[in-house]
Amino acid sequence: MDTHGRGQSPLKLANATLANLPDPVQRPLYDRSALSPGIVHVGLGNFHRAHQAWYLHRLMQQGHALDWAIIGAGVRAYDDVMRERLLAQDCLTTLIELDPGGTSAEVVGSMIDYLPIEDGNGPLIAAMAKPRIRIVALTITEGGYFIDPGTGTFDSSHPDIRHDADHPAAPRTAFGAIIAALKLRRDNGHGPFTVQSCDNLQGNGTITRRTVLGLARLSDPGLADWIDSHCSFPNSMVDCIVPATGPKEISLARQLGIADAAPVTHENYRQWVMEDEFCAGRPDWDRVGAIFTADVHDFETMKIRILNAGHQVLANAGELLSVETIADCMAHPVLSAFFTKVQRQEIAPYVRPVPGMDPAGYVELIERRFSNPEIHDTTRRVAFDGSSRHSGFVLPILRDALEAGGPIEGLSLVEALWARMCAGTRDDGSTIEPNDPQWERLAKAALEARGNPQSWLAQREIYGDTASDPRFMQSFADWLNSLWRNGTDATLQAYIGSTAPNRD
């Protein structure tokens, strides 16, 4: 079968085939057999492989950081699927850049192993306990840090946390495994490692420290004090749009001449900003474009509020209108006008400029990135886990706007759209399948809110005291009633053309 214009079948991705890949495909220039590990990364999803692993790979291409290779890890049974796929191709990944100007591919080789996934996380603990591991990194999703979204405090009551507190040598969570490994390192005199969150959380390093120390104190307060004194938890901001992989992406890799069971597509944009706080050293990521700064907060606020909250502005409305992708949403005249108005009037005012970029310019950048028709980023993927994403991305802006006395109609409508989406049907009557770890609870509240909007805001674990703000309560109720009465398109147009729905 001629899959890439050369009359040849695609080559199975492996060390042995790298030299024979089609010429346009970039591949590792370094000797992968000479690499040694320095990082254990928990959560080997698409984003990590397109972002952090790529930065390290590009550094290795220059002959640096050859002792910082990545060992992959997971803590859930479903991670085994990715482990099998990656081990079968020597932990190589094909990154496919999707840009309106053309498609290109690069094989990344900075990951060299993937640990077995077992109950009690023995292999993970043993790997992290080895002194050659100097960084343990995480991409475990925004909702994976056991933080109460209403208060921002460590949730010590979660069943997995209680299990790890009672069984610290055989934990269920990544944080329990980190603590168990650090105990071995302390007891054996091997010193600490850096715990590096790469998730989209405001103050992700601070939150990671809070979770690790909170869990450690439940079983070993002395160890918690040692971790607090010796380990580092740098805050960081990560940015690259990376869609999910399905048959289309696997087929695209084959068209490029590569049989890759787990390719990754991504946009032509990356950013990584982090604090330079690494207790056991780090790769020189700044040689390949990463930014080290003591002022990560403004960078992460700009990105999380304009990009991540912006995704939530579009995704629920897109689902209700049966619009498949984020790029399709930006091509939709009503959705794009809604997005632009909310961004410029209700989000950008609560974002500070960073070196080289002001909020208005960043909104324009995000509009261009979201509009890339080559990026097949589905509204369903972006809408997933709204209970974490609205709590982390949208509601902090709403609280700032309420405190400042600024407009909140668009942000209230965003929350009403989420509530309407969680009722489980689109405007055309089709079913929205469960799309949140808390879907059953959300769906129940959403259906009750059709007759009583305050039933949705009664979810105090999400809204906290914001649910009691009279201005937000009224605005939310008006928009939700309009969505049920008039439909999504008409309601969005009402917002675009004015500041509030008709209450008649």
TrEMBL record:
UniProt keywords, alphabetically: Oxidoreductase
Pfam family name, one: Mannitol_dh
Chain ranges of the Mannitol dehydrogenase C-terminal domain: 295-484
Residue ranges of domain Mannitol dehydrogenase N-terminal in the record: 38-286
Domain of life: Bacteria
Record protein name field: Mannitol dehydrogenase family protein
Taxonomic source organism: Hoeflea alexandrii
